[in-house]
Amino acid sequence: MRAGRSLTVAVVLSLVLTALVGGGIALTRVDLPSIGGDAVTDLAAAPAAPKAAATPEPARIVSGVRLRPTPQALRRARMAARAERLASLPVTFVLATFNVLGSNHTAPGGDRRKFPPASARTPQAAALIRQHGVSVVGLQEVKPDQLTTLQRLTGFAAYPGFAFGSKETDNSILYDTSRFEFVSGTSFPVVFESRARPQTVLRLRDRATGREMYFVNMHVSAGHDARDTASRIAGHLTGAEQVNRLMATGLPVFLTGDMNDRAEFFCRVIPRTGMVAAVGGSTANGCAPPARMPVDWVVASPGVSFSDYWLDETPVNRRISDHFLVSARATVPPAAEADPTED
């Protein structure tokens, strides 16, 4: 009887263990009593099996996504790289100044009646501009009839041209549109022979490099009486102030014009602005103007260099004008070199 009961207990325990193991519960080995034994193993008293260390689940590998820049971003990057590359190049062009002798001076009743009329002189003036290989020229005394002819024969654009009306074309700047494009234009007044007249400020962009620069063109009073002398000096000082304001932008600045002074203009304007004159001269140890200079000037902001200065006396000799045509080749250094604040 006792043997039968022990067998029954053993069978029951075997079934329970099988169920537990099948259910995923890990148990340690339990020694069952022999069939003939009196004791029944107490399962609750069996020592708990240590938990097996959990095997970490392998990390999921997600296919990477290749980021492609948009066409707009690529275009902007290319444009920025091109602009940086072009800014590292110098800009070279021929700049000139020319008082063409206004047509009113040679018209009936004018004060230069020994000169031919403008209809004969202006085509010769256009030929001289082309001969000098000019890209930008500051004109003085150019009247509407002369300006129209000069533009037609050179193919150049003009500023202000007729923007201020037909009475204010005198100080227009002509420029080669295949080389430069218009950015902006303005003016400032100086008194010229008792009347305030606009002096031209033109901002152009070099098409090849994208570099921008300012051009200032002036004509101040002639004469040596007290009134004209005072207005001429005031005009020089106003021009110097305008040039300094423009140079503060960091862009190159060029000044052309009939200044109606030689050494006086040089020593009055060059030291105040730090500009360099195409004709030469120095302000390193005081003011040392060049040996020979006309009243017509081509000057530029520091950093610009000049070569091939040409004081063309043929306009006077050929009676095209009572002023020389003055030109020079200007070289604007790369942007980083032109900016004195650049590290």
How many domains, in number, for the residues?
2
Fourth-tier CATH superfamily name of the largest domain: Endonuclease/exonuclease/phosphatase
Tell the overall outline: elongated
Number of helices in the DSSP assignment: 9
Number of strands: 12
Name of the top-level CATH class of the largest domain: Alpha Beta
CATH architecture of the largest domain: 4-Layer Sandwich
Organism: Nocardioides fonticola
Domain Endonuclease/exonuclease/phosphatase: 96-323
Protein name: Endonuclease/exonuclease/phosphatase domain-containing protein
InterPro entries: Endo/exonu/phosph_ase_sf, Endo/exonuclease/phosphatase
Account of the protein in words:
This protein has 343 residues and is an alpha+beta fold. It folds into 2 domains: 2-45, no CATH class; 90-338, Endonuclease/exonuclease/phosphatase (Deoxyribonuclease I, Chain A, 4-Layer Sandwich), CATH 3.60.10.10. It contains 9 helices and 12 strands. It has helices spanning 2-22, 71-87, 103-106, 118-131, 144-154, 226-247, 263-273, 314-317, 335-338; strands spanning 91-99, 136-140, 157-159, 173-175, 180-192, 195-206, 212-219, 253-258, 276-277, 296-300, 305-312, 325-332. The strands form 2 sheets. It has a 6-stranded mixed sheet, with no helix packed on it. β5 and β6 form a beta hairpin. The longest helix is centred in the C-terminal third of the chain and has 22 residues, at 226-247. The chain starts with a helix and ends in a 5-residue tail after the last helix. Mean pLDDT is 86; it is low at 16-46 and 339-343. Residues 96-323 form the Endonuclease/exonuclease/phosphatase domain. It comes from Nocardioides fonticola. This is Endonuclease/exonuclease/phosphatase domain-containing protein. InterPro entries: Endo/exonu/phosph_ase_sf, Endo/exonuclease/phosphatase.
